[in-house]
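Homework-ish question, so no full write-ups if that breaks the rules, but can someone show me the predicted structure for this set?
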Amino acid sequence: MRMTSLLVQTLRDDPAEAELVSHKLLLRAGYVRRVGPGVYSWLPLGLAVLRRVEDIIREEMTSIGAQEVLLPAMIPREIFERSGRWADYGDALFRLKDRRGVDYLLGPTHEELFTLMVKGECSSYKDFPLSLFQIQTKFRDEARPRAGVLRGREFLMKDSYSFDVDDDGLERSYRAHRDAYERIFRRLGLDYRIVSAVSGAMGGSASEEFIAPADGGEDTFVACSNCDYAANAEAVELAVVMSSDVDHPPSVVIDTPDTPTISTLVERLASLGFDRTFSAADTLKNVVVKTRPPGTDSWSLLVVGVPGDREVDMKRLGAQLEPTEVAPAEGADLEAVRGLVRGYIGPQLLAALGVRYLVDPLVTEGSSWVTGANEPGRHAIDVVRGRDFRPDGEIGAVEVRDGDRCVRCGGLLRIARGIELGHVFQLGRKYARAFGLDVTGPDGRPLTVTMGSYGIGVSRAVAAIAEQTADSSGLRWPPSVAPADVHLVVTGKGDEPYERAEALAAQLQELGLRVLFDDRVGPSAGVKFADSELLGIPVVVIAGRGLAQGTIEVRERWSGTRTDVALGEASRRIAEIVAGRPAVSGAVSG
RNA sequence: CGGGCGGUGGCGCAGUUUGGUAGCGCACCAGACUGGGGGUCUGGGGGUCGCGGGUUCAAGUCCCGCCCGCCCGACCA
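A: Not a homework solution, just the prediction itself:
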């Protein structure tokens, strides 16, 4: 590649649209360009990186025996009707009509088509296990695309699906994918965490996310500072402190006028002259939500009890109730149930009112609370779980906080932001049932296949790598994904440096290295150096000033090391550095 | 969907308050100088000022309507 003919234009200023470093740099370095909201073009250098990421993924997928296929992005409505996703997916699904008015969609993922493909091709248990994958453009009409290629409405994804005839097989396929993902992200040079994505209630290892820690990321996860427990914020489980077996005084109802919120209540309690003090953490807040099971139209109320100093995390709640829908209840929903007094709801009456009541595990059996008395302006103190009320069950609903305790070891949990790189998930038989994916078992009877679903955001991975590795002067690609091995820069006047560099470029290519040759005559040395740092190719070779002494300079972008190398052995030495075996003899560092 | 900000050459922005020949920097083209950290000078090309309507002798600027984008939130395998 020669800079004089390469389609690349670096920008000195940050484009106004970009906020994140990866977004700014990918634009400034001329790797990608925005075409519309959440829609990007890849220019030659960007595409080179994208393809290298793809190749690594492809290699590792193939190494676990997965076979590559390519399914259409455009899918007839009927197929998504059968899985229910035409209705369930909502506004995030791109829908279109053909000239006859028949509905189509652009695939957001491909469970349906893979299931159908296997159903069409396989009919015996002997055809399994089977893993298939594709690397293909996906479409999701995100409400708010952001951060460039990190979260587009059109993006490149590797999705794979495993098919097994029994649960052990699924476990093995899942494991193989998980291991392959670890190799992939390591080879991509990414720092990543494996994080539980679904609560323990659904089964331990059924779903895990690979997250690249990054402050600019949009996913929140929690990691223990002491052990290796880590979880997505909505799947986290918290350690609970069991309450001691003390005898609580009997519950008493007191007047607390004008205290519809926790803060007004705490203030009022302080003014009532008790011989003990109450904080928000001593109150039991009962939040009313409504739920709707899938495929039904009617909402029913659910009350969730959490300590008063905590907020309810609707995402976390929703993740655990899935596939049932959850939404905050509105005034009218409350009024529909006689006896529910807004601001003064207590659990004592809920069973009698026929309203389902769940508490966060932090509200332990035997713990004592200040809570609503179900009458306007009145609260009850010393209300004890197990004595004064019995919830219908527990659900982790509380918003996790930095410093909460780890379920596994009791260590401090830390909250961090990250980029979701991939997801491995034991899907089970949902789609196999929906599409009748049955095969003949060893006993001659039909057997329903069980599936796993595994995704990696390929274009997103490019942005994540940029985000994690860039420094203040530009991109800094790991050698495994860099668009070239060597960036050769010529500086100086006259033809000689150019001729020398030309010859060196040829030698390097001879050795199998991919060379980006900055053969531009106009720009000054400073411009070329700045560009080389912006573009981020790992090894920069400078043919210029040193030529008079018969040397060229080799700079390593990652470490910042600068070494002068004799022209005669330049190509050999450069090849060694690229291969990661820099020779020591005769090196002049500076 | 709610809140905030914005739309002026390819990119980054000023000009709108107070209506009067569309400007600056980067990039681009030509020439000269310079030649190891985004260098200097001279000369050039490139703009339906988001769209539609209105007021006015005259609208980037004032009025009305609409569209689009960015950021935060809601939402999101």
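Now go work out the reasoning yourself. Hint: The longest helix of chain A spans residues 167-187.
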